[in-house]
Structure formats: C-alpha cells, structure tokens
Sequence to fold (396 residues):
Amino acid sequence: MTTTFARPSRRSVLKGAAAAAAATAVPTGWAIAQARPLKLGLMLPYSGTFAKLGENITFAVEMLIAEKGGKLGGRDVQIIKVDDESKPENGPQNADRLVKRDEVDVLIGTVHSGVQMGIHKVVKESGTLTIIPNAGNNAVTRELCAKNVFRTSFTNWQPAHGMGLELGKRGIKKAAWVTWDYAAGNESAEGFKQGLEKHGGQLIEVLKLPFPQTNFQPLLAQIPGLGVEAVGAFFAGGGAVQFVKEYAAAGIKVPLCGSGFLTEGTLQAQGAAAEGIETALHYADGLTNARDAGFRKAFKDRAGRDADVYAVQGYDAAQLLAVGLEAVKGKIEDEAGLYKAMRSAKIDSPRGPISISDSQNVVQNIYLRKVVGNENKMTGIAAEQLADPGSGCKIA
Ligand code: PHB
Fold:
C-alpha cells in the first residue's frame, strides 16, 4: 500500500520554486530540493500478528506531523507506506523499494527485530536516515550501530532487564522465560537473566517456539515441573493475547510476568486472564506528566482507540525527526547538523523525559506495572533512566 500525506498543493510548490528562483538567479540544487516535500517512508506491519502495532505507530507519526501543521523543519511531508508483514525474508527487498525506488529521505521502521536486520543492511549502505519506532534487536545499536540509525523505542534487553532486577530484588531464586525463538525473545531472555543474576537469582530454563506460532500447550505443560517461582515471557500483539489466556486457562500456579509488551494494547482482548500480571516497560497507565494526558486524548480522538507504548514510540520517532529537521531548517542534506541535534535531543515524551545514548538508542525509565482491570497501572520504577550497554558501538 502506498499513500501520500499532506502533499503540498501545486500552487505552493510553484510559489516555493518561484521564491527560490527569485532569491538566486540560478536555483541551486538545495533550493530545488527544498521546494519538494520531504519523503518519509514508513515500513511497518499492517497485517499479521503485529498489525495493530504498526497501525498505532502510524497514527502517532501522522499525529505529530499534523500537530506541526503538516510540516517538519518548514517542509511539507509526503508519507509512503509499505506493509512489511513482519516477514524477515522480505525485509531487504521492502527497504530497497523505499530507499532506491521511492528515494525516501527518511525511513521510520519497523516493529519486528528480524525485519529490522533487513532494513539495517540497506540503510547502512545507502546512509538513509532511519528511526526505529519499535524493533528492539540489540545489535543495531550495539556492534552494528550506524551514525544514520536512531531508535526511540528500546533494546530487547532494556524492559526485560528491569523485570529481572525487580524479581531479583524480591528474592526470587529460580525463574523461567517463555518466548518466540527469534532476536526479541532471546535477547529479552538474556536481559531478564542478567537482571535476576545481579541480585542472586537464576534463569534456569528458556522455553521457545518459532515466531509467529501459537501452539503454546507443549510449553505450558512443562512449567509446573520446572520448580520455578516465576515465569517471565516475551510475546506481543495477537500472540500475547492468546498466550496470556492459555496460561490462565491452564491453571498454572506460578505467577506470570514479563516484558510489558505481554499486556500492552491487549488488555481488552485478554480480559480477566491478565488480571494481576506484573510487567516492566517504558510506559504505563497512571503516569502523571502533563504531556501524557494531552497525548492520550489527542491519540484517542485521532485513532478512535487508546494510546499504548507503540503509539508513544511512533510519536517520539517523529518528535526526534522534528528536532533534527528544525535544527537544520529542513535541509536534511546537512548531515552533521542533523545528527548532532538528534544525538543531543532531550525529548518530552508521554513516557517521561528521554534522551539519546552514544549508541543512538533511547535512555528511559523502565516502569513496573500491574494489570488492574483494563490498565497496566504504574506501581514503581524498576530501573531509572536505564541505558542499554551499547557494547561494541563506536560512532565518531
Ligand atoms: C521485536 O521483534 O523486536 C519486537 C516486536 C514486538 C514487540 C517488541 C519487540 O512488542
């Protein structure tokens, strides 16, 4: 699907071009480039188990741009969307389509860690400015980091690490992790393990199934025999809805916790099965900052449904882009100025204050939450202004 957003009227393009021509006898390449809208590629899942995640990111990106009068850094914005279907095998080809065929100036994408690897391969080579609005794969802001790649979401390590720290502090000695067998699942298991170990706990088992399968029964059947005091999980979207329901239906007595995606944007569908589940995430219900209240209302008015962490991450991807483009007055070719502004950005996010680390991942609070009715109620902070270790990244 390809749609355009806020395409400028022909008159305003002509007016812009005329003004540029008047300013310099011969229009420069920059004057011509500025007269055209900035092309923003959105590569996200609009179908499959993560479809709602991609939609919420899109609503929020469009909302921020609309709040800025349809312009970023003084330039109109044309959005070109591609449904990546969360299929890693099509990642490089879809990214190529946006970068080479559509010649986007900026790419915002994506949700799935495996698909992100495909985007990364393409944009590392092309140098296209890329902002990751969800996918958490550690590598792209660790050993594979690149100066043109920023992330406004999290690393897979971050929320799970917060959960592990919290359980460790409570004296949990043995825990297990259940997940899909791909980067997001495996890296969140590692973050959880490291958090637990800091306080003397142990991760004794990781149970996995291939993404996006939902045949959970063989895994659930193993849990009572493990002798663990807690089970953590990484699932998201439609898969998370089903996992939480089946966990409750299996009558397992071991408490379920996890990275907050497990209960994020899913509570209505999970119903009573989710009640009481504790998770850790960089967003929660019941935050008290003014930005969050305004954001939630505006999002609901626009999207017709409640905001969630995915909406926040999309909004902040657009906020970070706006900071960069405002600093260079829309001149995206001014890479040094653009990246400098983005690297030093201090963003007032609905999640609270965030900043950008040296490896260009987001530094943020990891909140502790507990499901009460239809809310992931904030009950504390599992890790304050937590930065990913960013190991192996050097950006000059
Ligand atoms: C990922 O693949 O990195 C991923 C997907 C969905 C989430 C979180 C992480 O909710």
